[in-house]
From TrEMBL:
Each TPR repeat, start to end: 73-106, 107-140
Pfam families referenced in this protein's UniProt entry, alphabetically: Sulfotransfer_3, TPR_19
Signal peptide boundaries: none
Keyword terms of this UniProt record: TPR repeat, Transferase
Listed InterPro entries: P-loop_NTPase, TPR-like_helical_dom_sf, TPR_rpt, TPST-like
Entry keyword Cell membrane: no
SUPFAM superfamilies: P-loop containing nucleoside triphosphate hydrolases, TPR-like
Protein name: Sulfotransferase
Native organism taxonomy: Bacteria, Pseudomonadati, Pseudomonadota, Alphaproteobacteria, Hyphomicrobiales
Residue ranges the record marks as coiled coil: none
Keyword Transferase belongs to the record: yes
Length: 524
């Protein structure tokens, strides 16, 4: 490090430690102009990006810092957290294991590694990591929260509340804990915890946007239960605006148009040799909050099926291929240059992912909702797989998306308008796939499934190639961990209270209905 860089780094650190981040960050940018690989600059810029919810830039900065500062556990820790937020659980696990190895007495590292295991649905390893964290620090809020979330994922609701209450009593991880606690309760009168949540919202304390948003999600949930829909929607709107980064609608429109142009009937007719014979995958997809978790639980109750949850393989492959970025002629050439050997490699890798869940199961579910963008490749490689498209009343789906906290990757939900237009784009793409894909896509209506559970479940199992088993009617008794926001609903028998939920919010949904256009309810 030359003297100029060293002086700039020390100057930036002085401002950073004094809380003057707005002064420190431009100095770090200047450091990178002199020393593009400077680990301290990348680390600090990564922290700033992470705190602002800019997960992609944060990962990039942390990865660069980790290459240069291999012995600094905090670099690997924050890289792991950023990767976990991005859905790269394998990368997150590897990074956090490095942090633990470098500093094994740090309880927070064990707790955060436990959270990765929880999301990977490896309950035994998650519990071990949380317990190790609590041995080192009995008041570790992250571990207390994680233990509660782990208990919810396996259906132990009362035990979960006990862990959340311990965290509240310790005053640790309050935004996340209060949010988790409210999600598991039904309120008929204003609880004392609401005052605590509203005081935290208004206290002016600087906290990461995601934490501030969780407080709004919690308040919104309580007000919804109390029947004050207007106040609930006000908090939901604040939660989204605080917690989600801006959404690039123009890029999304360009991407959808590109896929419909490139992946036409001729594209599939010319690539039949890319197919494999495997029947193992059961792809369950559609918009989030459309019933994908429910459908997965029904299928996975079968004795010859296993639950894979949301497998990120094709979402990561989508990024690797460049399909998350701006379309280009070069991207089109790259996609059309994929060869049968590439398809065979992808198939081997994906089937190995399924083996990790259960090597003996005849069918393994993959309920990653946004796989609907990758159906072009999935159908080419696995034409004998089951393709289950979960559909639900658009207004109900959108209201659910607007009122539940999702990861920053779902920033298309930031406003009613962006969500409505995104939904139209999704529906248009699915209509295109129905015309050109070389596979049958089974559209399973959430409303029909709720109203006629057995008949629709029998058809569903038939589409997977599995013989009927009565256990599939008792989806709520499954023992597969559920890590999505449906984890409470799928532990209960079928109910229809979510049908028509949009009507409770009708007075506030004008912008959504206008954006949905022809997909808006006829009586809106």
């Amino acid at each position: 490090m030359n003297s100029t860089v060293e002086r700039l780094v020390q100057e930036a650190l002085t401002h950073q430690h004094a809380g003057r981040l707005g002064i420190a960050l431009p100095i770090y940018e200047e450091v990178l102009r002199h020393d593009p690989q400077n680990p301290q600059a990348h680390f600090s810029l990564g922290i700033a990006a992470y705190q602002q919810g800019e997960i992609g830039p944060a990962i990039s900065h942390f990865k660069t810092a980790a290459k240069k500062a291999k012995k600094h556990p905090q670099v690997h820790q924050l890289l792991g957290l950023a990767l976990m937020n991005a859905g790269d659980l394998t990368g997150a696990r590897d990074a956090l294991k490095k942090a633990v190895a470098l500093q094994p007495k740090e309880s927070q590292f064990h707790a955060q590694l436990g959270d990765v295991y929880r999301l990977e649905r490896r309950a035994v390893l998650a519990r071990q990591s949380f317990q190790k964290a609590l041995q080192l620090d009995p008041a570790n809020g992250y571990a207390l929260l994680g233990m509660g979330q782990l208990e919810i994922s396996v259906g132990n609701i009362q035990e979960a509340e006990g862990w959340f209450e311990k965290a509240v009593a310790a005053g640790k991880e309050l935004p996340a804990v209060l949010h988790a606690l409210t999600m598991g309760r039904k309120y008929s009168e204003k609880p004392a915890v609401l005052s605590q949540i509203e005081q935290l919202i208004a206290d002016g304390e600087p906290r990461p946007p995601l934490d501030q948003s969780k407080l709004h999600w919690a308040a919104g949930k309580i007000y919804f239960d109390l029947g004050d829909i207007e106040e609930a929607d006000r908090h939901y709107d604040s939660a989204r605006r605080v917690g989600y980064p801006p959404f690039d609608e123009k890029l999304q429109e360009e991407r959808m148009a590109f896929m419909k142009q490139v992946f036409d009937e001729a594209f599939f007719a010319e690539r039949q040799e890319m197919a494999t014979d495997s029947e193992r995958p059961v792809f369950i997809f559609g918009m989030p909050r459309s019933g994908t978790t429910l459908v997965e639980q029904i299928v996975s109750r079968h004795s010859k099926a296993a639950s894979g949850g949301e497998i990120p393989y094709f979402r990561h492959l989508q990024e690797d291929l460049g399909l998350k970025g701006a379309p280009s002629a070069a991207l089109e050439r790259r996609l059309k240059a994929l060869e049968p050997k590439d398809a065979k490699k992808i198939a081997r890798q994906y089937l190995a992912e399924l083996d990790a869940f259960d090597k003996r199961a005849a069918r393994v579910t993959d309920k990653m909702p946004h796989n609907f963008e990758m159906l072009w490749l999935m159908s080419l490689i696995f034409p004998k797989a089951a393709f289950i498209h979960c559909v639900r009343e658009p207004a109900d789906t959108c209201v659910s998306l607007l009122s539940h906290a999702l990861s920053p990757a779902h920033n298309y939900c930031i406003t009613q308008e962006t969500l409505g237009r995104y939904f139209q784009g999704y529906a248009d793409l699915m209509a295109h796939w129905a015309k050109v894909l070389p596979v049958e896509i089974y559209d399973l209506s959430y409303e029909d499934l709720v109203r006629d559970q057995e008949a629709k479940s029998r058809v569903l199992l038939g589409k997977t190639g599995l013989a009927w088993e009565d256990a599939c009617l008792e989806f709520h008794k499954g023992d597969s961990p559920v890590t999505t926001f449906s984890n409470l609903q799928v532990r209960q028998p079928m109910f229809n209270s979510s049908i028509g939920r949009w009507k409770k919010h009708k007075a506030q949904l004008g912008p959504l209905f206008q954006a949905l256009g022809p997909l808006a309810p006829s009586d809106s």
